[in-house]
Every structure is written in structure tokens, then in C-alpha cells.
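Sorry to interrupt, but I need a hand with the structure work. Can you supply me with one protein entry, sequence and fold together? No commentary is needed, just the two lines. Leave the record below and I will have a look.
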Amino acid sequence: MEVVKNMRWYLEKPERFLEKKPFWRGGDMVMEKTEYADIDSKIQAALSKLRVHTITQDTYLSEYNPTLHKINYNRSAAKITITTDSGTFTTTENLTITSSFQKDIHATHVQYLATNPMVFEILNNNDEKFTETLTSYKNEWKFDAMESVKQKMISEQKKVGDFALLFQYHKSKGKGNVKVLSFPKHTVIPNYDEYGGLVGMSFYYSVTTDNKITEYIDTYFDKLVVKHKKIFDEKSGETTWVTIDKPKKHKFTQIPCVYYRSCVAWEYSQSLIEMFELIDNIHAVIFKRLGVFGMKVRGNLDKTKGGEMNFKVNDSQLLINIENSDSKDDVEILKFPSYEGFIEYKNHLEKRIYDASFVSKINMQNMGTSGNIGNVVQIAMVNNIGLANQSIKDWQETTNKMAQLYAEMKWLETNGEEMNYTKMKLMARLSIWIPQSDQQIIDNLMKADWISNETKRELSPMSATNEKERWEREQDDIAKKNEQKQKPKAQIENQADVEQLKLF
């Protein structure tokens, strides 16, 4: 019998709501025998045999937080022991060096995608009938701080792998709200049918009351929201999931959730970061043990025999002066094994880390002191920009649905009495951030003759959402003032004509 994974199938066994495609990193290589075939022939199709190593989202959180990095728990890694004595007790701790590459890479990825405001476009704006509606929509978007919601959802995805936006409408309050739900507070689980179509969206979480932990699953379908609670069945001695209350309607015309999943920002540089931390700690131990000054003195420095040696030490040098020039005494500086190679290799690893993460590190040293610095920066950041452009396309479906659900939420708030934003065929896309001044942006827009003035207003960093209406009002005011200035002159000319007629 063919399995149909619809809403009923999931409700039969609520444990199915918790089935989620795992995150993974690495796996077992599948070595297969090489086979040959004619170039125009066909072979039997096969399914993937690759087995991967699954990881939890706790791994991402640990990698993001330097205090939870693996190097802290690596017993084979060299460590520096510190012992402190407060007078009453003695504490011994191992000092481990960690890095914050993941946080730096994460912040850069988020900056490129979330800094600039969302760009909206109406695909059915014939005769500009929705222009005023879009202006009102953008004002509501700003008032509800949806740009902050956008920034948070991008940040969460780049940090823990996935997230969900939940749109809610509370009829009793006549108000809607938007929540960004992600790990660890909520485990987000999309529920798919047998063909990969979205059936529902589940949120798995726990609540602690009086030191008692209770687990819940909230699932949003096309029309209903269903809540389950995990309880202990004393009769069977097993835990089971039960429905809380009756399913409720959420008022939206579709599943009121937006889900997106992709790699964390540092996914392809994690192994390099772990190698850097290992080398960095070995470097620190060698520096502590061998990076101290040492010297060997040969001879008799007894003052009674005329030998005297003076030392002068500062931050940069050590001066040794032997007073008796005839003395055979000498001083030899001890040379310890060189560790400069560690620094060179660490610099090499750091460059590879940022290259693998598509992050360009710009400083005055590698920019130089001449030429067009702005162009140098943009050329150096070509990989960053390339990844951001690709990401914008990957996010397109997500941002479109976000804008459409927000339009529906605002329509529910007004009960359709005000502007109906849902009539707009609305497209929303992220706008890539490129380091340049506001004046540079405006100058470039003014030079672009092929761009309409309306688009220039939307893209200008100094424009208000109703900039077009403001400009039109100013033009009307100027026209009225010009008309008033010309009116007395016309009246004088008419009066002169009347006087001439009287002569006849």
C-alpha cells in the first residue's frame, strides 16, 4: 500500500512530526569499480550510497562560541598551566588559546545580506494602480521594524543552519506579530509529503515549570494549528504524545511560516580553524618555554682582580659592558630553536580560512597608500560580492513568501477595510551591501540615465518611503508660486489694452 504523507498521516503518530533531515559533515567514501560504456549508451540509474556523519545543531553553537571550541577539551593539545594563590586557597588552571574566526565570518556574511533595506517590486502594477499601496506597505514595514526581523533571520540561519518565521494573528487584540524561531530554543522541523511538498511546519520545544520539564510540538498546517504535549502514561509505563485542546484556525490562507535552511557561514573553513587553534597553542607553549632571554658568562668577574661588568636593560636591547679591556672574560648570548616558522604558517592558515569562507580581510598594509582605495577595496572583495549575489538568489523564494505573509497579516489586522496589500503580486529581494559612501551611491544613480527616477528614489540611501509624493508636492508648490508671480503682470497688460480702447 502506497504511503500518503498528508496531515492525517502525521497526526496518527505525532512522533512523525519530529522526523527531520539531519545536518552532516563528512562521511564514508564510497569506492566503486570503474565501468565503461559507449558514449551514446544508457546505464541503469542508481540511488546514492554515500553515508554521511550526522551532527547536531549544538555543534554549530559550540563552534560559534570560542569558549566551547574543541581545543578546550583536546587532551593532546599543549597547554599552559597557571597557578594562582589568593592566600586562602590555590587554583590551577590550563590556559587554552581559542579564536573567534567563526564570529568574524558570520558577521561579515550577515553584513553583506542584511545591511541594505529590502527591495520591493510589484509584478502586476499596470498603470501604476498599486503605487500608492506599495508606499503604504513600505511605511508599515518600517513601523513594524521588519528590517530587524530580516536581519535576525539571516543571522540565525548563518549561525545554526536553519530558522522559521512564524506569522500570527490574534483576533482578540486585532493585531499580528512575527517571530523568528530557531535553535536552541526551538527545533524547527518542516513536515513534507512523499514528493517533498510542505504539509506542515512543526516547532519542538520544552517549558520548565517548578523544576519540571514538559515537551511540546506546535504544528501549523494550511488552515489549522495543532498542539501536542508529551506525557507519561502510568498504565503502559511509556511516554506518549497527546493533543492539547482542539485544533484552531490560524486565519491565514496558507501555512503562516517561512522556512530556510543552508550552510552556516564558516562551514567550509571549520577544519582550517581547528588546525589554526592547534598550531596557535603549540606556538604559545614554545614561546613560553624557549622565548626567554638567556646568556652564558665565562671568566672571573671578581672586582678585586679588576673585573667588573655592567648591565643595562630596556625593552629593545641588552647592553653588557666589561670595564677591564684586558680581561679574557666574555659573554655569549644563548640562541634557542627558532619558532618564526609558526608565525608564517599561522598567517598562511589565516589567509586560507578567510578564502574558504569568502571573506576578504582588508587593511591599510595590503591596500597600499596610492591609487583609488575605493576600487582596490571592491576588487579585493570580489569573492564576498560573488557569494552574496548567489545567496540573494538562494533566498529569493524565502523573501518573497515573507513579504506576502506580511501583506496578509496586515490585511487581517484591518479586516480588509483599509488597503488590501494581498492584491499586489509582490516580489521582495535582498540587496547586496558594498562598502561605499552615500554620496558615491547617489552620484552613481544620477549618472545612470537608463534608470527611472522612481527607481533612483527607491535606491537612494537618503530617500523617504514617500519621496515621490514629497517631490511632486514641491513641484506643485513651485508651479503655484510661479503662477502668482506672473498674475500681476498679466493684469497690467490687460489694463493697458483697456486704456488704449478708450482712445477710440
Observations:
- The longest strand covers residues 198-209.
- Residues 367-373 have pLDDT under 50 and may be disordered.
- The two ends are 110 Å apart (CA to CA).
